[in-house]
Amino acid sequence: MIDAPVKNSKKLTEENPNFSLFNQLANYEHEQVVICSDPEVGLKAIIAIHNTTLGPALGGTRMWNYESEEAAIKDVLRLSRGMSYKAAISGLNLGGGKAVIIGDPHTEKTEALFRSFGRFVDGLGGRYITAEDVGMTEREMEWIYSETKYVTGIPKALGGSGNPSPVTAYGVYMGVKACAQKAYGSDSLEGKKIALQGAGNVASFFARHAAKEGAKLYICDIYEDKAKELAEEVGGELVDPDDIYGLDVDIYTPCALGGVINDDTMDQFKCDIIAGGANNVLDDEDKHGQQLLDKGIIYAPDYVINAGGLINIASELEGYNEDRALQNAGNIYNTITDILNYSEDHGIPAHVASNDLAEKRIKTIGHIKNKYSSKANVSGRLGEVYKRFID
Ligand code: NAD
């Protein structure tokens, strides 16, 4: 079967004759990509393991109706690499991984499909540990969990960590305080005006922390009732979603959707700080990250300040304890401080500073792992496998 890999690779590149999977892996420096196929149950999945220097590759499984196999591969490579950076900068002993299941999350979910996928995850013996991501719900995660223990973010009733939002929001709150310290020489949010975009899970928990400290919140959501209810609870003011960017505030806290720092919004910002829980807020990382630096706006890189969710599920590996997860998320304050100082010292945008520091940590820890050591002392539900990979 010497020609089998060639056949597969041709099929995967049929949309673009110049697309090369191995070139992509080399460019992004991935360790391994696993293509999972089970036509009988309709499973087409790709698991990408980017880097396991620091520990097992952890990252969610996304189900999405990709327009092509190439698009799915590119997405899983990009996302898994992002997870390596996120874990590394957050001080976690985890590598980066991600999985995508190609299919319509509204019509193509079956128990057999997810259990089949769970078996593929299990076959990797803990090199990849999965979690919930876009297009997935608790029900599918439980199906996967019935075939493999290498799952995090499972319900509290099953020994997991449950809803990550309170921990994510606490990390965002501490990250915002670190930015305030940098901008104003004090991390107190008392009297600070904060424009809060979104009134969902993360935004609500964040608003309660900030309001308790005396911040004045301006809140919007595309569902006005939600925003109104939160504004009433925290003594904030309801604002129109279209007006949120141009408000005369100290801090803008995006907690809704991505791409909100873009060509249309850039000139509207009057704030000193942009720091919030939403993912992928820079529409064009390089261009808009540089523009924020040029405008003198302090920016907390999204993947760092919202790492509480990852920190929360990572705690499951050592035996979940919410207080410890919150304490670790609180360390986002120090991480953001380090990034802002590095960004200032080197005159580079904060997201570039963060990537640099993440790469440095992977390199340095990789170096010290060259030396013999006895096994690390880790217990908990996945303690045994965790031990194997972090040493
Ligand atoms: P959520 O769905 O509970 O809340 C999002 C809210 O944003 C919803 O109420 C929605 O109506 C609102 N919204 C959508 N578009 C909007 C717009 N244009 N203007 C104003 N409001 C709008 O989601 P969440 O769990 O709170 O997550 C919020 C963000 O944080 C997302 O980007 C998510 O990827 C990111 N994040 C969440 C976690 C977590 O632990 N939940 C972890 C890391 C990152």
TrEMBL record:
Q: Where does NAD(+) bind?
A: G198, A199, G200, N201, V202, A203
Q: Name one GO molecular function term.
A: nucleotide binding
- Tell me where on the tree of life, at the top rank, the source sits: Bacteria
Does the keyword section mention Nucleotidyltransferase?
A: no
InterPro entries cross-referenced by the UniProt entry:
Aminoacid_DH-like_N_sf, Glu/Leu/Phe/Val/Trp_DH, Glu/Leu/Phe/Val/Trp_DH_C, Glu/Leu/Phe/Val/Trp_DH_dimer, Glu/Leu/Phe/Val_DH_AS, Glu/Phe/Leu/Val/Trp_DH_bac/arc, NAD(P)-bd_dom_sf
Q: Which GO terms describe its biological process?
A: amino acid metabolic process
Which keywords are on file for this protein? NAD, Nucleotide-binding, Oxidoreductase
All copies of domain Glutamate/phenylalanine/leucine/valine/L-tryptophan dehydrogenase C-terminal, residue ranges: 162-366
Q: Does the keyword Nucleotide-binding apply?
A: yes
Pfam families recorded for this chain? ELFV_dehydrog (PF00208), ELFV_dehydrog_N (PF02812)
Q: SMART domains this protein is in?
A: ELFV_dehydrog
Q: Give the range the annotation lists for the signal sequence.
A: none
Please name the catalytic residues of this protein.
K98 (proton donor/acceptor)
The entry assigns this protein to a family as follows: Belongs to the Glu/Leu/Phe/Val dehydrogenases family.
* Protein name per its UniProtKB record: Leucine dehydrogenase
